[in-house]
Specification:
Structural class: mainly alpha
Helix content: 40-55%
Number of strands: 8
Largest sheet: 3 strands, antiparallel
Order of helices and strands: EEEHHHHHHHHHHEEEEEHHHHHH
Number of helices: 16
Distance between the termini: 57 Å
Shape: elongated
Strand content: 5-15%
Oligomer: single chain
Length: 406
């Protein structure tokens, strides 16, 4: 549109008339039609400035400089629902920062966004169009952070429609006040963490796969999707280090060879006690450390419902936000409390460097220093006095606890 804007037309004299010539976009083609419209009879002897003023008005009324006409005629009138669908398809196949799992985004569109603005032309999706949707989501009980996240999805869809030169067709200036977006307040965010006593009790009250999973999460700060994708081959340096390089997909019992961020690809060093516990647990095991009877990965939503939530409820700790991520908060809190070297701390936790000092540091490459730091900071909870024994041959058809599907 930038190359089509600003036409004032050319004045010519023809058959007793002063006419203005300009080009006008036509439906179904990139070629513009040459137009010639009457401005005034030559006999009126209007001044040059008056003729130019009238010519500009005629060109403007014809829509030659109209962005709305350009979008409707050249690009076609795109409906938000159709553009959102195309955006999600493009997002999972693009080379630059593809979206691996669009399940939650699709859920937001289907439940909240499409019913309100799905049938609006993309050109009309602006601050005022979003205000009723924002009010509806707030009234529906969505948290401020969720409302802001859903609005961000809408912004990305509007921005995704590009002209041939790669520039966004709809250049919006989004205004939070006009949309009446709620402010995200950190103190209102539900980010509870497990305490050392609670972690110790969870481990003491559980057995088999469940116990080993709690130990791994609390001692490493892994995301649950990462922990459930750990295989025996990922333990290196005599079991003192575990490599994180894949995760279980959210709603499908399959392994994805990708992680949430680039910094998530890392190595986590273990305290010798933790390493020994996990090595004893892995005796006789190959492949996934945690799996169902069919040797497929667990879905962490299932494990939370069947393992973690009932135990937390029994301990009177089942509050909003107290899920798998509370293990990660426990580990981060413990590391900072033990004055763990920040560069190594961030490396283990999968947090990207932020400052120039962190970018220049290569402490994460110093294996001996990392192993010493892992032993020095400890892990902050009690391991069972009797470690998991190696698997013994079974008699009869009974299955071990580790083989029971969760």
């Amino acid at each position: 549109m930038s190359r089509r804007s600003g036409q004032s037309g050319n004045l010519v004299k023809q058959n007793g008339w002063v006419r203005v010539r300009f080009r006008l976009d036509q439906p179904g083609t990139q070629v513009r039609k040459q137009m010639s419209l009457k401005v005034a009879p030559i006999s009126m002897k209007l001044s040059r400035s008056e003729l130019e003023r009238r010519a500009r008005e005629i060109v403007q009324e014809a829509g030659a400089n109209s962005e709305e006409r350009f979008n409707q005629v050249v690009l076609g009138e795109v409906i938000f629902r159709k553009r959102a669908t195309a955006y999600l398809q493009e997002a999972v196949t693009r080379n630059r920062e593809p979206i691996r799992d669009t399940t939650s985004i699709e859920g937001a569109f289907n439940k909240w966004i499409f019913p309100e603005i799905g049938d609006l032309p993309l050109a009309l999706v602006d601050n005022l169009a979003l205000k009723p949707l924002v009010n509806k989501m707030c009234a529906g009980g969505l948290k401020a952070r969720t409302v802001n996240k859903y609005v961000e999805y809408i912004k990305q869809v509007v921005k995704s429609l590009k002209a041939r030169n790669g520039e966004p067709v709809h250049k919006r200036i989004w205004d939070a006040e006009t949309m009446d977006l709620p402010v995200v307040k950190y103190r209102e965010q539900k980010r509870p963490t497990l305490k050392a006593k609670a972690v110790s009790q969870l481990i003491a009250d559980s057995t088999g796969q469940e116990r080993a999973l709690y130990v791994l999460l609390a001692a490493t700060g892994m995301r649950i999707s990462e922990a459930l994708a750990i295989e025996s081959r990922h333990f290196i340096n005599g079991g003192r280090t575990v490599k994180v390089e894949q995760q279980v997909k959210k709603d499908t019992p399959r392994i994805g060879e990708y992680l949430k961020t680039d910094a998530s690809f890392r190595e986590i060093d273990l305290h010798p006690d933790i390493a020994e516990f996990l090595q004893r647990y892995m005796v006789g095991k190959k492949g996934l450390l945690f799996h169902t009877q069919r040797n497929s990965p667990h879905l962490y939503s299932n494990l939370e419902e069947r393992w973690l939530t009932p135990r937390l409820a029994k301990m009177d700790l089942d509050e909003e936000g107290m899920g798998w991520h509370s293990f990660k908060r426990f580990r981060k809190t413990w590391l900072r409390g033990r004055r763990c070297l920040e560069d190594i701390n961030n490396f283990w936790m999968g947090h990207a460097p932020q400052t120039m000092s962190e970018l220049y540091s290569h402490l994460h490459e110093e294996l001996e220093m990392r192993l010493a730091e892992a032993e020095s900071v400890g892990y902050g909870f009690e391991l069972p006095k009797v470690a998991v024994a190696p698997n013994a041959p079974r008699k009869g058809p009974a299955k071990s606890e580790d083989e029971v599907a969760a």
